[in-house]
Amino acid sequence: MSSLAARASGEVSLETVGRRAEARLVFARGGGATVLTRQHVPYPFHVTRVFRLHPEAPDLASLYLQSASGGLYRSDHLSLAIEARPGARAFVTTQAGTVVHRGGPLPTRQETRVGIGTDAFLAYTPDPLILFPGAHLNVTTEIEAAPGARAILTEGVACHDPTGRDLPFDRLSMSLRIADPAGRTLVRERSALDGEAFTAAASPLGRHRAYGTMILLAPAEILPAPRLLQAEADAFGCLAGASPLPNGAGLGLRLLASDGGRLSAGLEALARLAFRALSGCEPSRRRK
């Protein structure tokens, strides 16, 4: 049966439900500054113009990534590729958190692929995803980092029931892979969370309803000390642990918070601290 006939009869395959879209952003160095040399941004993605927010580092490009829809919906499959070519310096963030709506048998998929060239700097710090009751989400992150690359990458999720009944999301799966330009895997991890177990009284996460991670890629001598990062997270009411990544790739942090707002504040504070260390300049305030 054709897709048109299937729609007419009301028999729509699960595989045909949801949006498919892939966005790509490429930053390169030219004329003494970092410029956005390529942008393929289909619906529901949207980007602002490039901002210059660092007077002491005019070569650093800042960009807001936005969504033109009301979030992620059932069986959506959205992909984002960001490349910082050799010597480029860019800071990409989002304007607000993204809601993940109730899902179905097939997960909503969000894929992020990041490439950081030699001596490039990239900070990608999206606001946490907000998991509504019944959300079924699969998050995949692939990072390729060249020698001398520096990067700050964060991701987070928070539970929220707009009805106030504290109903859980359905399921969350997360996957991370960090590789070198030759394709050698440096770091690989996978995790899966069941919504009911996550929010149950016996949950190993206690009463925390938000979870986040931060990856810092840089030479060991310029990475912030784990104790400083943990102390900064504590100051914002987050429980954090930091440890070296395998194969000398960098530093990894995990955070727990009581809610999405507290997690956002903690991740933002940690990103500011890391930004100073990895970029050599003071981060500007991002208006959201």
Automatic annotation (TrEMBL):
Subunit-structure text: UreD, UreF and UreG form a complex that acts as a GTP-hydrolysis-dependent molecular chaperone, activating the urease apoprotein by helping to assemble the nickel containing metallocenter of UreC. The UreE protein probably delivers the nickel.
Q: Cellular location of this protein?
A: Cytoplasm
Similarity-based family: Belongs to the UreD family.
HAMAP family on file: UreD (MF_01384)
Q: What is its main location?
A: cytoplasm
Q: Which organism is it from?
A: Methylorubrum suomiense
Name used for this protein in its record? Urease accessory protein UreD
* Upper taxonomic lineage: Bacteria, Pseudomonadati, Pseudomonadota, Alphaproteobacteria, Hyphomicrobiales
Please give the function described in this protein's UniProt entry.
Answer: Required for maturation of urease via the functional incorporation of the urease nickel metallocenter.
- A Pfam family that the UniProt record links to this protein: UreD
Q: Which gene encodes it?
A: ureD_2
Tell me yes or no: is Cytoplasm among this UniProt entry's keywords.
yes
Please provide the record's keywords in A-Z order.
Chaperone, Cytoplasm, Nickel insertion
